[in-house]
Structures
1.
Amino acid sequence: MRRRDPVRAQRLLAAHTLALADASHGIPLNFALLAGWQREILAEAEAPFRVNDAYAKAGRERYGLTPRTQADFASCLHETTDPDIPLAARAARAYLDVAFFHPFTDGNARAALLTLVHILAREDIVLPEVGPLQTTRYADDPAGAADLATLIGVLNRRRH
């Protein structure tokens, strides 16, 4: 088991507080908002959109960068407010979008978690713990995405 770095954990908690506050103020989810949380997470002055292909899972997954990547990502974030899509599905989709668009050079799993937190908090749903979702997801796994939406629904029901 890997020990958690207390400084890193504190920065995640600070970014979590920002994500909740932004949700309570109705601030729409967009890249600039995520970048603000990311600056807190990484203790960096800047958190730009990545400029090269990204890799994950020890290089087994590659996330390409095209001229449309940033615009496609922005469109996905905009869809998180669509009331015709169930909340758990919107939250799961956004979590996976951040994970697989991989907008930052570092900290994308934490950014994905905060995205999920923000979407749920906009609907007055605050999960009782802050921590990584221990799930394995792949970009081409629709069944895994459905499982994640189900997990989010279960977490929300258990919260009540």
Note: The chain has a mean pLDDT of 86.
2.
Amino acid sequence: RIVFAHDPGAEKRLDNCRALAEIELRTRRVATVAHDKAWDLSAPRYSPDGARIAFLAAHQGRKHTMPNQLAVLERGGRWKVVSAAWDHSLHAPLRWDDDGQGLCFAAEHEARNPLWRFDLRSRGATRIFPGGWVQGFDVANGVVAVAADAMDHPARVHALRDGEPPRRLERFNDELLATLKLGAHEDVRLQGAQGDEVQMWLVYPPGFDPRKKYPVLHSIHGGPHAASGDTFHYRWNNHVFAAQGYVVACVNYHGSSGFGYDFLDSITHRWGELELQDVEAGTDWLLKKPWADRQRVFATGGSYGGYMVAWMNGRVLPGRYQAYVCHAGCFDWVSMFAEDAYTWFPRELGASYWDDMAKVHAQSPHAFAGRMKTPTLVIHGALDYRVPDGQGLAYYNTLKARGVDARLVWFPDENHWILKPRNSKLWYGEFFAWLKRHAPSAGRVSSTHPPRSRARRRAG
């Protein structure tokens, strides 16, 4: 038999809720083994003896933001959630211990993604590999193999055996990394919106000297229900930013994953409000440092992070940030109905635009365009279906129409991410040139760039 998640039919479920089914390979018969129209069931895994199935269950009927919890189905019985008391959302895949008494999985915890073992008898979780960020793992014959990266290195592979320290299995990138000088990074905590503790990463330039002045660069993560993690990001690499002389700040604002369900769900139906307070609290924290140059403060972000910098442009007084970079950012929640997951936004915003336009506009950057004055670099891919390029084009055109200094970089052959190597090189070049252009020491009119840059197909 093979067990899998499937769509039981729209008339039997809520949006995005799947059931579990088995297919008998000999007869090709399919039978549903677990189904509740209010729960989304996914990532099933047979126990070693085949008597149980472990899977992820999210109570979508209660709220669309509900976390993935661990559930177990006993053959011939009912399924039940076993991790309800543990305030973490689990990631697939699930892997059973050889004795069937526990399961391994990754789950985020305060900007890291460790590997955990959940004991079915005690209903407790134990961290067995700390991360940075576990990207993949498997279990066999009492050995756990883990691939995990961290802020200061790409993925490394380790083997774990009970009672022994992790054993590294490869050295693929050591020689190359030895040629690079990476700055230090730090996990700091500050008071954000509602008086809650908010986590922020700082990445320092190589050779950082606290007696000198440094520009500050916010790198705002997307999602919003994601996190700036202890991970080696291949598209927005913090060490590449820091190597240009910036102190890079990554705020895990309200709505971020890995800090408990209440923190994640706190922004629902009021996007932009708490997140902005958190980013601003991060800026306040940074500007109290003697090494921070308050004349060179920048904010950048992609996807929801791009939404955030567009939101900031209409809500933060001009002059606090010298320039913004908006990559694949959401600008207008009404026209975002052109994207590929359009049913999700009304649940997050609290209304469909045809039912409550005022509520939707209250959370939409475009509704505050009359206040926008901060120079912005807008970057977008023509093949972006998650945030269609009309969002970036409308934002750029709005700024130009208002007389705000703006620049558009449009990639005809890229999607939500810039993936082709030469396009990525161009992306970083445009990114740094824009920030340099708007640093006071560089002057604001010294650029030799034309007003637009169209990335050509052959650039890939």
Note: The chain has two domains: 2-174, 181-459.
